[in-house]
Amino acid sequence: MPNEPILDEALAFTKAFLESSAVKSFPNFAKHISSALEQPVHKGIPRLEARKYIDLYEVDESRNETVLELAKLDFNRVQLLHQEELSQFSK
User: Fold this and answer.
1) What is the pLDDT of residue 2?
2) DSSP 59
3) pTM for this entry
4) Entry's Gene3D superfamilies (predicted)?
5) DSSP secondary-structure letter at 45?
6) Residue 69: which pLDDT band, with cuts at 50, 70 and 90?
7) For residues 38, 45, 57 and 76, what is the CA-based torsion angle, rounded to 10 degrees?
8) Which whole-number Å values give the CA distances from 34 to 49, 63, 80, in the listed order?
9) Which of 33, 53, 58, 89 is spaced 20 to 30 A from 67 at the CA atom?
10) Do 24 and 4 share a structural domain?
């Protein structure tokens, strides 16, 4: 934000901390950090962020297979709904 030096300092500190943490962390966690630094989740499109997170979670050794399967089913269900809506508009 303009004229908010404390926020600029906090952002710079946070980025530096996360970048150094990414180097020291597990490879999958480093991907999460890098992804968040490139584009913060709150600024992204929710469905695209969900898809990106599914890909990252899929390679996580501590993943819960049930949660992963439900996330994939939900994503695919909503994608199918969008495709059906687009086909209705195309007619």
Assistant:
1) 66
2) T
3) 0.66
4) Farnesyl Diphosphate Synthase (1.10.600.10), Terpene synthase, N-terminal domain (1.50.10.130)
5) -
6) very high
7) -150
8) 14, 20, 30
9) 33
10) yes
